[in-house]
Structure formats: structure tokens, C-alpha cells
Write a structure and sequence with these properties.
This protein is an alpha/beta fold. The protein has 11 helices and 12 strands. The protein has 2 domains: 6-53 and 171-243 and 254-277, Rossmann fold (3-Layer(aba) Sandwich), CATH 3.40.50; 65-161, Vaccinia Virus protein VP39 (Rossmann fold, 3-Layer(aba) Sandwich), CATH 3.40.50. Helix 9 (132-144) links the parallel strand 3 and strand 4 (151-153).
Length: 285
């Protein structure tokens, strides 16, 4: 059968496409959250795990640490304040989730070396990422610039210190919902005419509608809900024996996020070479 979108086929990772197709054919359809999870973080074929995807001017997207070291320097001052408030523990563990190859870590450690060598002496900066190769690269980079004694791969033991994540929450899987005249339905992913397509149906979990209670929604409106973000936050905060969580991302209060007049089509976006798109079935993986 000829694919409905031959260009998207050619631009996608074939092993991942086949895996997702098999999942869909076995179940009839899958949630968009499942599709997104596999597309981004499948151990062998996901965007973040299969290759060397990194933020930066040469990559597909850019985050603050790659833009200017002042972002890390400001966070270094915040971490120094956290250390003081925790009565100067040693070790003072900073566990960064979604650390990539350590760009933010290096600017933070450089800021501490410049302004707060006492905090640097106490710190153990842990790099965590879904891609082990990027963690290894980050540890190597840190060693090359003199921070080897202060960095380690992230563990799961409880810490006294800070959980840190920058622009990670908005990359976690989302369910896509569509507001109808009488009910809210979920947009699932199916396989049709040789490629991925959307199929609506009853929501896979009624709890998906909890964030939408009492909001002024409008028929035809599309929106996203991420139970994964809440679950992730709960899990990583449980790693803290005593300390803080600093989670940095873009966002809105629910009433603004789901405003049907401002964002009738939701906020799901794709990025390729810094070009924003709205078709998640193109360049899969």
C-alpha cells in the first residue's frame, strides 16, 4: 500500500516507524502519549536516545545554557543560597535531570569557581539523562576543564541538595484531547493508508480531564494534558531527603493555557533545524 505521505516516510526513522506500527496494529490504536514517548525516548530508536541530539545552534532547538553562560552563573548563585539555607552540607548534591552533555552543569560550576569556591568544594554535581552516551560526554567535558572531582553520573539514592531540571517537563509525553459539543474526546494514533493518522475516541483515562474542570472550553478546541509531567515531578521530588527542586520551563496558569480564543489548537510543536512545525507524524524519530 502506498503511504499517504511518502515524504514523511522518507524523513522518518524506519525502525521506529515499524515498531510503532506493530504497536498500533496489535492494539487498534495507541494514545498520542505512547506515540510521543516512543518517538522521543525509545531505548534504541528514540530521538533523544538513538543519536546525538543536542540543543545548540547546530542542532534542532536551543535552550538558555547554549545561548549565554549568564544563565548558569545566575543558577550558581541560587544554588549557593540553597547550600546556605541547608546549613552547608557536604556533599551538597545537585542532581540535574535532562542534563545532556553537561552544558548547564559546566556554566554553573564555572560560576561557583568564580564567585563561591566554598560551595564548589562541597558540591557533587550529578548528570542524569535518558542517553548514557551524553552523560559520559558530559563527565569527560567536566574533567577536561578541571571539574572531574565534582561530577558524577546521577544515581537514585535520596539526597541533601537540589533537584534541577531545565526545559525537561515540556518534552514529556502528552495526551491530545478534542472538545466536542457534548463531550471531550481523545485524539489517538492509528495506522491508515500506510502511515500514522489521528482517530478520536473516548478518553483513555477519565483523570485526563481533571485539569480542565471549570474551565471555559469551546467546541472544536484541541489541547494537551500531561500526567507524565506530574508523575515525573512527584517521583524526582521523592529523591530529596532535605533540599529543593528547581524546575525551569515555560508555561501558563490553566485558565490561560487552555484559553480557546488564544490557543484553540493547543501548544504541541515539533522542531527541526530550529523550524517550528505542527505535524508530529513528520520526521518521526
Amino acid at each position: 500500500m502506498t503511504a499517504a505521505n511518502p515524504g514523511a516516510v522518507a524523513r522518518s526513522r524506519p525502525e521506529l516507524v515499524e515498531l510503532l506500527r506493530s504497536d498500533i496494529e496489535a492494539a487498534g490504536k495507541i494514545t498520542f502519549a505512547r506515540f510521543m514517548e516512543q518517538a522521543l525516548t525509545h531505548p534504541q530508536y528514540g530521538y533523544y536516545t538513538a543519536g546525538d541530539a543536542e540543543p545548540g545552534f547546530e542542532g534542532d532547538f536551543l535552550t538558555a545554557p547554549e545561548t549565554h553562560p549568564v544563565f548558569g552563573a545566575v543558577l550558581a548563585r541560587q544554588l549557593a543560597e540553597c547550600w546556605e539555607r541547608l546549613d552547608r552540607p557536604t556533599p551538597f548534591v545537585v542532581r540535574e535531570h535532562g542534563a545532556g552533555s553537561g552544558s548547564l552543569a559546566l556554566t554553573i560550576l564555572a560560576g561557583l569557581r568564580e564567585e563561591r569556591p566554598d560551595v564548589l568544594a562541597a558540591i557533587r554535581y550529578e548528570l542524569g539523562d535518558v542517553n548514557d552516551r551524553r552523560v559520559a560526554a558530559g563527565l569527560s567535558r567536566a574533567t577536561e576543564v578541571g571539574f572531574g572531582d565534582h561530577v558524577a553520573a546521577a544515581g537514585h539514592d535520596p539526597i541533601i541538595g537540589v533537584i534541577l531540571a531545565n526545559e525537561l517537563l515540556d518534552a514529556l509525553p502528552v495526551h491530545r484531547l478534542v472538545v466536542g459539543n457534548q463531550e471531550i474526546r481523545e485524539a489517538f494514533v492509528c495506522w491508515r493508508d500506510g502511515w500514522f493518522a489521528e482517530e478520536s475516541g473516548p478518553v483513555s483515562d477519565v483523570r485526563l480531564m481533571d485539569p480542565l474542570i471549570d474551565l471555559p472550553l469551546m467546541a472544536g478546541q484541541r489541547l494537551e494534558v500531561s500526567p507524565a509531567a506530574s508523575a515525573w515531578t512527584t517521583r524526582v521530588c521523592a529523591e530529596i531527603t532535605r533540599g529543593y527542586a528547581i524546575l525551569i520551563d515555560y508555561g501558563y496558569e490553566a485558565v490561560e493555557l487552555y484559553d480557546p480564543l488564544v490557543r484553540p489548537d493547543g501548544l504541541l510543536r515539533t522542531y527541526w533545524q530550529h523550524i517550528a512545525g505542527d505535524d508530529p507524524f513528520d520526521r518521526v524519530g
